[in-house]
Design brief:
The complex is a heterodimer of chains A (about 130) and B (about 325). Chain A is mainly alpha-helical. Chain A has 6 helices and 1 strand; from the N terminus they run αααααβα. In chain B, strands 1, 3, 4, 5, 6, 7 and 8 form a 7-stranded antiparallel beta sheet that branches. In chain B, a hairpin with an 8-residue loop joins strand 4 and strand 5. Classes of the chains: A mainly alpha (about 130), B alpha+beta (about 325).
C-alpha cells in the first residue's frame, strides 16, 4: 500500500519541486528595449557587462542564502534578509562571510590571555573588563 | 589579592612574588612593544572650531536596550531605529540580523536590516572627526569595536550618543550599560580595530553631515534597490539640494522620478544632469529614452545622438537605441 502510494506520489513531488525551483533558476528577464540605465549600474565603476553582472548577482544571492542557512538562520527569514542587501554587500557576504567580524562581545579567553588583556585594559588599549575604567 | 598572600607561608610568599614580578615584567615588555607599535595613540583631532562642532553634546532620547547573550547587534539597531521613529523591538530584529552559529551579527546585514525599516543606512568615512560631526548634528552612531586585541577579538556594537571635547570622553549605550563614558583614547584604540566602522540610520530625505556625495549616493542607491523608487525620492531630492552641481545626483533623481511614474520630472532631472556635465553619456541616454516615451521625438532624437556620440560604457546601448529610434 505504502509502496504504491509512494510510487504515485514521488513523481508528483519531484515535478512540484522542479516547478517550484524554476523561477529561481530562470535567468533575469530580458530588459525591455527602452529600459533606463539604473543608478546602481551607473554608479558601479567596473566595466563588466551589466547582464553578466546581473546573472552573477543572482547566483551569489542564492549562495548567500545557502550560507545564512548554514549559519543557523531560519530558512523562513533568509530570503528577506538577502533581498535587503545591496549588490556590493552580497558580493562581500558571498566572498568573505567567514572572515567578517561578527559583533558579539565575547572572547574565547584563556587565563594567560585574561591577564594580558587585564594589563592592556589598564593601559587603555582594550576595554574587555568593565572594572578597569 | 593581598588577603590571599597573607595566608601563605613566608618562603612560598617570596617565591610567589618572584614569579609575579617576572610575569609582570614580561607583560610590561609586551605592553611596551604594543605602545611602541603605535596603536595607543589617541585620536589626533583638529580644534573644535576647525571641525565646526560644539564643545560637548548629548543626544537626548536615544532609548537604551541592554544586550542579552551576544546580541549587541540587534540591540544597537533597535536603539537607532527607535530614535528614528521606527517602532521595532530587539526580539523582532534578532531573526533578521543575528547569525546563530557565529553568535554575532556582520556589518553588511547591520546595513541591510536598517533598509527593511524604511531608513537609509549610511556608513561613515571612518574618521574620528566625522563621528563627532554626526553626534553634533544629532545623529546617534552605531560603531563597531574590537574591545580586545586583534589576536583574540571581542567584536562589539555600541551606539555613540554624545561627547565632551574638554574631558575627552565619548558617551555610548553599550552592552548592558547605558550612558557609558569612554575616554577618546581607549575608544579610538578599540574602534580602530574595526577600521573605524560607523553607521547612521536616517529617514529618506535626511543626510549625514560628514559624508561626501559619492558615499551618500551609494547608500541611497542600495536603499532604493531594496525598497523602491518612490521611497527613495526624498533622499535623492535631498542629495540634489546638498550638492546641486553634482550631475550624478540629478541623474539618480531622474531615475527615481521615472521609477515612481513621473516621466516629466524625470526628464527635467536628466536635463539638469546634462547641464551640469555635458559629457555624461548615461544621462543623455536616459533623457532620450524618457523623452521618447513622452512622445517628444525631436528632443529625444538629439539626446540619443549625444549619448551615441560620447565615448562611454553605454555607447553601444545608446547606438542601439538610436538605431531602433530611427527605424
Amino acid at each position: 500500500m505504502m509502496k504504491k502510494l509512494s510510487r504515485v506520489l514521488s513523481p508528483l513531488l519531484i515535478a512540484f519541486l522542479v516547478l517550484g525551483s524554476l523561477p529561481v533558476a530562470a535567468a533575469p528577464q530580458a530588459a525591455p528595449a527602452n529600459s533606463l540605465v539604473t543608478t546602481q549600474d551607473a554608479l558601479s565603476a567596473d566595466q563588466v557587462s551589466a547582464d553578466r553582472e546581473r546573472i552573477n548577482e543572482m547566483l551569489s544571492r542564492q549562495d548567500v542564502q545557502d550560507q545564512l542557512v548554514a549559519q543557523g538562520v531560519d530558512p523562513a527569514d533568509v530570503e528577506a534578509r538577502v533581498a535587503a542587501l545591496s549588490d556590493a554587500e552580497v558580493r562581500q557576504m558571498a566572498e568573505q562571510l567567514d572572515d567578517l567580524p561578527a559583533g558579539a562581545s565575547v572572547v574565547g579567553a584563556l587565563v594567560f590571555i585574561f591577564v594580558l588583556l587585564l594589563v592592556t585594559d589598564l593601559l587603555g588599549l582594550t576595554n574587555v573588563f568593565p572594572f578597569t575604567r | 589579592m593581598s588577603h590571599l598572600l597573607e595566608r601563605q607561608a613566608p618562603r612560598q610568599q617570596s617565591e610567589r612574588q618572584t614569579w609575579n614580578a617576572r610575569t609582570a615584567g614580561v607583560l610590561l615588555l609586551m605592553a611596551a612593544l604594543l605602545l611602541l607599535s603605535g596603536c595607543a595613540t589617541g585620536p589626533r583631532l583638529a580644534s573644535p572650531g576647525d571641525m565646526g562642532v560644539a564643545e560637548r553634546t548629548y543626544i537626548d532620547g536615544v532609548p537604551f536596550h541592554a544586550q542579552r547573550d551576544y546580541q549587541c547587534g540587534p540591540a544597537s539597531l533597535a536603539m537607532v531605529l527607535n530614535y528614528a521613529e521606527v517602532d521595532v523591538s530587539v526580539d523582532t530584529l534578532i531573526p533578521q540580523v543575528f547569525l546563530p552559529n557565529r553568535e554575532g551579527s556582520v556589518q553588511p546585514e547591520m546595513q541591510s536590516t536598517v533598509r527593511r525599516y524604511d531608513r537609509v543606512s549610511f556608513v561613515l568615512d571612518g574618521n574620528f572627526a566625522s563621528l563627532l560631526e554626526e553626534l553634533d548634528a544629532g545623529h546617534p552612531v552605531v560603531v563597531m569595536q574590537n574591545l580586545s586585541l586583534p589576536l583574540w577579538p571581542m567584536w562589539h556594537y555600541a551606539v555613540a550618543i554624545g561627547y565632551d571635547l574638554d574631558e575627552q570622553l565619548l558617551t555610548l549605550h553599550s552592552g548592558e550599560e547605558a550612558n557609558r563614558q569612554e575616554s577618546f583614547r581607549r575608544f579610538d584604540a578599540t574602534w580602530a580595530r574595526s577600521e573605524r566602522w560607523a553607521m547612521v540610520a536616517l529617514p529618506p530625505g535626511e543626510l549625514p553631515v560628514s559624508t561626501g556625495p559619492r558615499r551618500a549616493m551609494d547608500a541611497i542607491a542600495s536603499f532604493e534597490q531594496a525598497n523602491d523608487a518612490e521611497a527613495a525620492l526624498p533622499a535623492w531630492r535631498a542629495v540634489t539640494e546638498r550638492w546641486p552641481q553634482d550631475a550624478m545626483a540629478w541623474f539618480a533623481l531622474g531615475n527615481a522620478e521615472y521609477g515612481a511614474g513621473h516621466p516629466e520630472d524625470a526628464a527635467n532631472a536628466f536635463r539638469h544632469a546634462t547641464d551640469r556635465q555635458p559629457d555624461l553619456a548615461v544621462a543623455w541616454l536616459n533623457l532620450g529614452l524618457t523623452l521618447e516615451g513622452l512622445g517628444q521625438r525631436s528632443e529625444a532624437h538629439q539626446a540619443l545622438q549625444q549619448a551615441a556620440s560620447l565615448p562611454s560604457r553605454w555607447q553601444d546601448d545608446a547606438k542601439q537605441a538610436l538605431t531602433r529610434f530611427n527605424d
